[in-house]
Specification:
The complex is a heterodimer of chains A (498) and B (303).
Chain A (H helix, E strand, L loop, with lengths): L14 H6 L16 E2 L1 E3 L2 E3 L6 E5 L6 E6 L3 H19 L4 H17 L1 H12 L3 H22 L10 E5 L2 E5 L5 H14 L3 E5 L6 H12 L7 E3 L4 H8 L6 E5 L2 H11 L5 E5 L5 E4 L5 H13 L11 E5 H15 L20 H16 L3 E3 L15 E4 L6 H4 L6 E7 L2 H9 L6 E5 L3 H10 L4 E4 L18 E2 L4 H6 L2 E5 L2
Parallel strand pairs in A: 1-5, 7-8, 7-10, 8-9, 10-11, 12-13, 12-17, 13-16, 15-16, 17-18
Antiparallel strand pairs in A: 2-3, 4-5, 6-20, 11-19, 14-15
Chain B lengths: L17 H11 L6 H13 L1 E4 L7 H12 L13 E4 L4 H8 L5 E5 L10 H13 L4 E5 L2 H5 L3 H15 L3 E5 L8 H13 L4 E3 L11 H18 L4 E5 L5 H12 L12 E5 L2 H14 L12
Parallel strand pairs in B: 1-2, 1-8, 2-3, 3-4, 4-5, 5-6, 6-7, 7-8
Helix pairs in contact in B: 1-9, 2-10, 2-11, 3-4, 5-7, 7-8, 8-9, 9-10
Classes of the chains: A alpha/beta (498), B alpha/beta (303).
């Protein structure tokens, strides 16, 4: 395979241009070895799907097949849940917390030791820039494991006056935008609390999850504590509706979240949902302009906009709107879109052909509804799935592009005159996951934070995550929290100490 | 003398968020610069360098040796062109001017009671005039930080404008001494005042303090230059001085400039590094790029 083909760049004779063109600096893929066939992790062993079916995972930057992965079915989910139940009853539930912690610490250290391998694999399989998988996804995944490992022997201190006990077997379904990171967010608190897990990673991005599964074997986790059943929507549906689990934790689209909620309705199965978003990013006229620009750029173009808490709606105060949008246009012209393995790439590949088609359809729809669409002149790679950074202006608020989650590098721009108007516009959505504020005035920050209906409000920054900080949404962005003490409680039953 | 803008105070309105600025600067400074881009960046670093000696123990012999080095940055590779300028104390301007007569290398001098700037205006201006008369092409002054921190922006402005006037045809590089300004807001404000007063170049530091150029400060000043350009159409240069010692640091700064002001700013007319030890590291890296082997540092000239 001839990956890493260098896209030809103009090379002027001027040394300043030769410098600033940044010849490709490609992270080597030699560090990863991808198995051509990948099984399910059930009861500590890699096995094929019961009916032998597989599916193909593809590299978004090239469109080429990477590996075959077992397609888990109902029978496989049954076996995985049974293995998890057995591990729960026989080992994990009653193991002292300090001992459970040792497994999680070991897993976290192994992940750190092999961070580069995980980062390269994440970028190959998912399309995100290597800078992000190297500097954000993998270190943060390890941080979540470390953080929650530390909780394992302190659970009775998590909520004062309450004795904590695990729930049982947890079914977890993760998305493709932060594949390993979302797995760490889910399994770390679940396992630390003494639950066992059946995990269904997103269909297009299973590889780092499977590698983490292999690390649990290296760390000699008791069999059945973490089971991985790969597959697509049907596999996830089978897991969510399974009668043998005590809780479902899902991160993904609002549409699927609703169907899961219907599936568990009327059962004792607990549920947390982390769903879509249409985050408002509010820039006031007194904001630090250049830093607000960077915040807005990072808020929507981070991970190609495949971010549930993306700041996809810019609300900018009218007095500075023209100057701000001009500068924003100029700034996105400097974003480097291309090979995700290039260390200088700012915007990588769209995760799948289907997702690219959805984004293109949204942008076309915006044009048809009379919005103005701006994309900087930038050469996209000829193969693979890429989308130029896009700014949509002339947006009123009722257009589809302003209401629905695009999950791509597309920012809509609206203006506001007063703080009240900004809040009203920001809250005029069915979602409520994130919001951002840029102002130099502290009282404004507090007022906005109190009036925005969103699970997370960032002030003069955006997309900051920490294992100690609870994350989650309100309204159709879901319920339940991940991270912090609040996130821990989602995996515990609490009873008053007598 | 340049005209005083109507309200220097209005420049206070624009502010800088420290954390976000530092984050952006750190990201820009960690671009991965390889092969042709690296070579071009290293050559630019040499071409944009003010080779500097500012010691009490400087002698004519030391300055003459440095001038030779300025003309031939790598004595073993004539393809590496001369540096932009040498920078010396005012009493040695004549020595440098004679050594560099007929060459493209400029003579710069720190005048105006460097490094504190704490002397009477007429003495400082007289020192500038004398340095120019002795052959200095560029004059590096420091702003009055005392007046700036006391909020007397007009005084700072008028002082710089008077220095510009005293420079005549020589270029004025105005040092903000960022290590004494206390905040990015102040660094930005001082940049705007210095530019409004007619500085040809704004410069971070004297090199005499421990806090001098950093990626975030360079970004902050580059953004101020870009905003001044947008507002007035005037193109002001940037000089980073103090603390730039390695080729890798230098390449990081070039990325900050290129991605903030554009490649048009990466020329000796608009961008300079003030440094002494940086040159040898750059030459080592250039030789490594050419041969694949690191030269021994003790094979390089000491100037």
């Amino acid at each position: 395979m001839s990956h890493n083909e260098e896209t030809p760049r103009k090379s002027g004779s001027n040394p300043a241009e030769r410098f600033a063109d940044y010849v490709p600096s490609i992270e080597s893929r030699d560090i990863v070895s991808i198995r051509s066939r990948n099984g399910l992790l059930i009861d500590g062993a890699w096995v094929d799907a019961a009916d032998g079916r597989t599916f193909t995972t593809v590299e978004p930057a090239t469109g080429e097949a990477l590996a075959e992965i077992a397609l888990g079915g109902t029978e496989d989910v049954d076996r995985a849940v049974a293995a998890a139940r057995h591990a729960y009853d026989s080992v994990w539930r009653d193991m002292p917390g300090a001992e459970r912690a040792r497994y999680l610490f070991r897993l976290a250290r192994l992940l750190q030791d092999r961070a580069r391998e995980f980062a390269v694999l994440e970028t190959i399989d998912g399309g995100k820039p290597i800078r992000e998988s190297r500097d954000i996804d993998i270190p943060l995944a390890a941080a979540h494991l470390f953080h929650h490992a530390g909780w394992a022997d302190k659970l009775d201190l998590a909520v004062p006056g309450m004795r904590a006990a695990p729930l049982g077997v947890i079914g977890q379904i993760t998305p493709w935008n932060f594949p390993l990171l979302m797995v760490a967010w889910k399994i770390a608190p679940a396992l630390a609390c003494g639950n066992t897990v059946v995990l269904k990673p997103a269909e297009t991005t299973s590889l780092t999850t499977l590698l983490l599964g292999e690390l649990t074997r290296e760390a000699e986790f008791p069999p059945g504590v973490l089971n991985i059943v790969t597959g697509a929507g049907d596999t996830g549906a089978a897991l969510a509706a399974h009668g043998g689990i005590d809780k479902v934790a899902f991160t993904g689209s609002t549409e699927v979240g609703k169907s899961i909620r219907r599936a568990v309705a009327g059962t004792p199965v607990r549920l947390t949902l982390e769903l879509g978003g249409k985050g408002a990013h509010i820039v006031c006229d007194d904001a630090a302009m250049d830093q607000a620009i960077e915040g807005v750029v990072d808020g929507i173009f981070f991970n190609q906009g495949h971010v549930c808490c993306a700041g996809s709606r810019l609300l900018v105060q009218e007095g500075i709107a023209d100057a701000f949008v001009d500068r924003l246009r100029d700034r996105i012209g400097r974003l480097r879109v291309g090979d995700p393995l290039d260390k200088n790439t700012d915007v990588g590949a769209i995760n799948s052909a289907e997702q690219l088609a959805r984004i293109v359809e949204h942008v076309e729809g915006a044009r048809q509804e009379g919005c103005e669409v701006y994309q900087p002149p930038c050469a996209l790679p000829e193969r693979g799935w890429f989308h130029a950074p896009t700014i949509v202006t002339g947006v009123g608020g009722s257009e589809r592009i302003a209401r629905e989650e695009v999950f791509g590098p597309v920012l809509t721009v609206q203006t506001f005159r007063t703080e009240r108007e900004a809040v009203d516009r920001a809250n005029a959505t069915r979602y409520g996951l994130s919001a951002g504020i840029w102002t130099e005035k502290g009282s404004r920050i507090l007022w906005f934070a109190n009036h925005l209906r969103a699970g997370v409000v960032w002030a003069n920054t955006f997309n900051k995550f920490d294992p100690a900080s609870p994350f989650g949404g309100v309204r159709e962005s879901g319920f339940g929290r991940e991270g912090g003490r609040q996130g821990l409680q989602e995996y515990l039953t609490l009873a008053p100490v007598r | 003398m340049s005209e005083r803008p109507p309200a220097l105070e209005s420049l206070r309105a624009a502010s800088v968020d420290a954390l976000a600025l530092e984050e952006r600067a750190a990201r820009l400074a960690s671009r991965s610069i390889k092969r042709e881009s690296k070579r071009a960046g290293l050559e630019l670093t040499v071409a944009c360098m003010d080779l500097t000696t500012l010691e009490g123990a400087d002698t004519p012999g030391k300055v003459e040796a440095m001038c030779q080095r300025a003309l031939h940055p790598d004595p073993e590779d004539p393809a590496i062109g001369a540096v932009a300028a040498v920078c010396v104390y005012p009493d040695l301007v004549g020595v440098a001017a004679r050594a560099l007569a007929g060459t493209p290398v400029k003579v710069a001098s720190v005048a105006g009671a460097f490094p504190s700037g704490r002397s009477h205006r007429e003495h400082r201006l007289a020192e500038i005039r004398q340095a120019v008369a002795d052959g200095a092409d560029e004059i590096d002054i420091v702003i009055d930080r005392g007046a700036f921190l006391a909020g007397r922006l007009t005084e700072v402005h008028d002082d710089v404008a008077a220095a510009k006037d005293a420079c005549g045809d020589a270029h004025l590089k105005t040092i903000l001494e960022v290590g004494e300004l206390g905040s990015y807001d102040n660094i930005r404000l001082a940049s705007m005042v210095a530019m409004a007063a007619g500085s040809d170049v704004i410069k971070t530091s004297t090199g005499k303090l421990s806090l001098s150029a950093t990626p975030a400060i360079a970004l902050c000043m580059a953004e101020a230059i870009r905003d001044h350009l947008d507002q007035t159409g005037a193109e002001v240069g940037l000089k980073l001085a103090g603390g730039v010692r390695t080729a890798k640091q230098a390449l990081g700064y070039l990325s900050i400039i290129a991605e903030t002001l554009g490649t048009a700013w990466l020329t000796p007319e608009r961008f300079r590094f003030g440094a002494s030890s940086l040159l040898n590291d750059v030459v080592l890296q250039l030789r490594f790029g050419a041969s694949g082997r690191y030269a021994r540092l003790d094979n390089l000239p000491v100037d």
